């Protein structure tokens, strides 16, 4: 409304809409049904990716603190400590892209990122097994941290397999 125009105080009468041109759901209006598309993303998989990411933050902080404790309190051979500590840094360089690819593949319903995420999980599984079985000093907290991390990666791998089964071919 322009400020220079006079205001019409009478209400305008609304004419009924012609049949077939009104809102959906009104009588006489033909509704077109869209073909329903099956949703192929996995909510369970996405939940485990989300909480797995939060677990990774806790895991990484505690793992670094455990390594600092071991380095200060235990007689470590210098080569072993450097190698095992560098595995923690290598771990984070692999884990972040793995979770990103898994989430992206699940949300976009594409199998390639999920497969790449599965491939990136293999060296992580090797690292977790190394930290549990072959590390110079294995503390009880190492067993707990790496056992929980193995459980997250294992459950995510199962969800990946189920999601890949349901996905359409690219």
TrEMBL record:
Its main location: membrane. Residues 15-33 have a biased composition (Low complexity). This is Transmembrane protein. GO terms for cellular component: ciliary transition zone; membrane. InterPro entries: Uncharacterised_TM-17. One of its GO terms (biological process) is non-motile cilium assembly. The chain crosses the membrane at residues 43-69, 81-101, 113-131. It is a multi-pass membrane protein. It is found in: Membrane. Residues 1-33 are annotated as: Disordered. Keywords: Membrane, Transmembrane, Transmembrane helix. Pfam families: Transmemb_17. PANTHER family: GEO07735P1-RELATED, GEO07735P1-RELATED-RELATED. It comes from the Eukaryota.
């Amino acid at each position: 409304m322009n400020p220079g125009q006079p205001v019409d105080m009478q209400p305008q009468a609304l004419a009924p809409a012609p049949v077939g041109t009104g809102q959906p759901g009104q009588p006489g209006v033909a509704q077109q049904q869209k073909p329903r598309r099956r949703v192929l993303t996995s909510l369970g998989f996405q939940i485990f990716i989300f909480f797995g990411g939060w677990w990774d933050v806790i895991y990484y902080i505690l793992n670094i603190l455990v390594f600092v404790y071991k380095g200060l309190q235990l007689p470590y051979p210098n080569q072993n400590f450097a190698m095992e500590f560098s595995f923690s840094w290598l771990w984070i360089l692999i884990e972040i892209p793995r979770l990103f690819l898994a989430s992206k593949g699940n949300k976009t319903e594409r199998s390639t990122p999920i497969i790449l995420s599965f491939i990136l999980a293999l060296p992580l599984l090797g690292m977790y097994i190394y930290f549990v079985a072959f590390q110079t000093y294995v503390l009880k907290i190492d067993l707990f941290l790496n056992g929980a991390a193995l459980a997250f990666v294992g459950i995510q791998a199962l969800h990946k397999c189920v999601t890949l089964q349901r996905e359409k071919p690219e």
